[in-house]
Amino acid sequence: MSKYLHGFIPEEQQRLIDQAGILGSLIYPRIDFSDCNHLLEIGSGVGAQTAVLLKLFPDLHITCVDYSESQLEKARKNLEQYSTRVSFICQDAKQLQLPRKYDCVFICWALEHISEPVEVLKGMKKYLLPGAKIRITEVFNSSFFFFPVLPTLQQYYCAYNEFQVSLGGDPDVGAKLGNMLKEAGNTGIELSHGGFHLDQTNPDDLRKIITYWKELMKSGANAMIQAGVISKKEVISMENDLDQIAKDENAVFFYQFVQAKATL
Ligand SMILES: C[S@@+](CC[C@H](N)C(=O)[O-])C[C@H]1O[C@@H](n2cnc3c(N)ncnc32)[C@H](O)[C@@H]1O
Question: Cα-flanking dihedrals φ and ψ of residue 20, to 5°?
């Protein structure tokens, strides 16, 4: 099983909730489960996306699968008000053993942490009903562009991505979703991109996303410091660089994630 880049401390668990709020308007316009009843969410974390899905689709029952009991414990608390519509299973996504079949699957920011993620897509098939909807949102970290070019931020970002690879993850897994879904034997595969292209024409959003990005970058810091990949000083310099971009009159901040639709 791959080690987990972000860790399970309370600050990180809160970051996932904040992240779901900040990026929600970018993720959900292309996701519609209104004709579905039983959704399997793989790598559900603390239930941040689960809460959005339960609100958006009032007929949906969701089974949350995560391999961290600590994440699921937090998810149980976060989703207390939906207790009749949600259940939790602590399991490795590559060794699923589920009690029923589902008419839809949702995966968000989870395959990036799993080595050989195609095995997850293959393994989940036996728990899906014919015609089940598959909806995946994943990172494509090579798409990140920022201006002005600041070497410390650049170095930190490279170290962050290389560290994720060293843990068995893939920071560009989003770009590969089409091929992976095909290899897993799915049909109706469609890919699309979402994200941001920000500059000083929209300074409020630029600042908001840069603040979010800082938290995202810091979420890998503990593990990277422990592994001797970066120092505390470099974390502070990375934050300073991001503050500098937010103020720069020629600032550009661009990132695209990938969303995949498929059918069993
Ligand atoms: C970045 S979090 C995303 C959580 C949630 N999807 C969200 O968007 O808020 C990734 C989650 O995947 C879980 N995870 C990583 N590898 C896993 C595996 N092999 N099996 C099950 N869960 C896994 C982690 O425990 C973590 O909760």
Answer: -60, -35
Q: Which of 8-12, 99-103, 132-136 has the lowest mean pLDDT?
A: 8-12
Q: What is the pLDDT of residue 1?
A: 53
Per residue in 23-66, pLDDT (tens digit) is 999 999 999 999 999 999 999 999 999 999 999 999 999 999 99
CA distance linking residue 222 with residue 235, whole number of Å: 10
How close is the Cα of 130 to the center of ligand 1, in Å?
A: 26
Rounded average pLDDT over 143-154: 96
CATH match of 10-263 with 3.40.50.150: yes
Q: What is the mean pLDDT of the chain?
A: 96
Inter-residue contact 54 to 87 (CB < 8 Å):
no
Cα 101 to middle of ligand 1, angstroms: 21
Which pTM was predicted? Answer: 0.96
CB of 68 closer than 6 angstroms to any ligand 1 atom:
yes
Cβ of 255 closer than 6 Å to ligand 1, yes or no, is no
Mutation choice for ligand 1 from 12, 53, 62, 66, CB with most ligand atoms inside 8 A = 66
**What are the domain boundaries of the chain?**
10-263
User: Cβ(111) to ligand 1 under 6 A?
Assistant: no
- A 10 A CB-CB count for 237 gives 18
Question: Residue 92: CB within 6 Å of ligand 1?
Answer: yes
Residue 67 Cβ < 6 Å to ligand 1: yes
Instruction: Spell 123-160 as b/e; 16+ CB within 10 A means b.
Output: bbeebbeeebbbbbbbbbbebbebeeebebbeebbebb
